[in-house]
Structures are given as C-alpha cells and as structure tokens.
Design brief:
mainly alpha, elongated, 157 residues
C-alpha cells in the first residue's frame, strides 16, 4: 500500500511540478508569458479589492508573484511527494491565492464561452484543493506508529 500511496502523491504533484518547471524555463527578465497573461486579470482583481474594501492595494511586481508561485509549486510538490504536510500546505496556499485570480469566471456573462471555460478550470482547481484537504485530514487522523515496547526479560538465577 505504501508504493501505491507514493505513486498517487507523485502523479498528483506532477501537475504542480511540471507547471513550475515550464514557468521557470520561460521566466526571463519580466516574468515570461505567465506574467503577461496574468497582468490583466491581476489588475481587475486589484481594482475589485480596492473598490469593495476601500483599501489601496500596494504595487506588486508580477515577476515577483510568478517567482513566488514557481517556488510554492516546486517546493510544495517535492515535499508533497515525500508525504510532508508542509508541502500540502504550500500547494494549498498556492491554489487558494491563484485560483480566484486566474480563473475569474465571475467577471464574465454566463452566456459567453469564456465563462464556461474559466468556470470549468476553477472547479478543477477547487477539486485539487479538496484533494489536498483530504490528504491533510487523513494524515492528521492516522495515529503515529508507536514503537513496540519489548517485554522485560525475566531474570533467571
């Protein structure tokens, strides 16, 4: 059962690791294509947060955001393969912040094709988030193995 669990974690983490590897290779001086694709969505998100909360959001360089997501996905994926709860928390943090910004279906009319595509991707990421929560719940509910105490040897005279 241990190998099957390892294989499942490796396949699950492959999604994050391959994505991080691709973004790392394309990063460049400006954050690469990921930063260019994220820029308009990030601007809409910042405007929504500023208007709804009435708080000015500080300027954030998108190449730093992309670098942080690469780090979260890469380190989180590697640690998750090793069955680390910390790795699962890193992936959870990545999904919690990135999913509502990148897959902003709520900014589109329900009749448009973009709405259906973005909503589908959003739900997929919510499912990944649920799988991570399930992993953390199972990891915390299984008691740790206690070493078996050896029976004291009886003294013979």
């Amino acid at each position: 059962m241990g190998f099957v669990s390892f294989l499942g974690r490796a396949l699950f983490a492959a999604v994050f690791l391959l994505s991080a590897y691709q973004e790392f290779n394309e990063f460049g001086a400006d954050g690469g294509p990921a930063a260019k694709a994220l820029q308009p969505k990030f601007n809409v998100f910042v405007n929504n947060v500023s208007s709804h909360l009435g708080v000015a959001v500080p300027h954030i360089e998108l190449k730093h955001v992309i670098a942080a997501t690469i780090g979260l996905k890469g380190l989180g994926g590697l640690l998750f393969i090793l069955s680390s709860s910390f790795g699962a928390y890193l992936l959870l943090l990545h999904l919690a912040f990135v999913t509502p910004i990148v897959y902003d279906f709520y900014n589109y009319d329900t009749e448009k094709a973009e709405f259906a595509q973005l909503f589908g991707k959003f739900i997929e990421n919510v499912a990944l988030l649920g799988a991570l929560l399930f992993f953390l719940g199972m990891k915390n509910s299984i008691p740790k193995r206690q070493p078996k105490k050896k029976a004291p040897k009886s003294k013979t005279n």
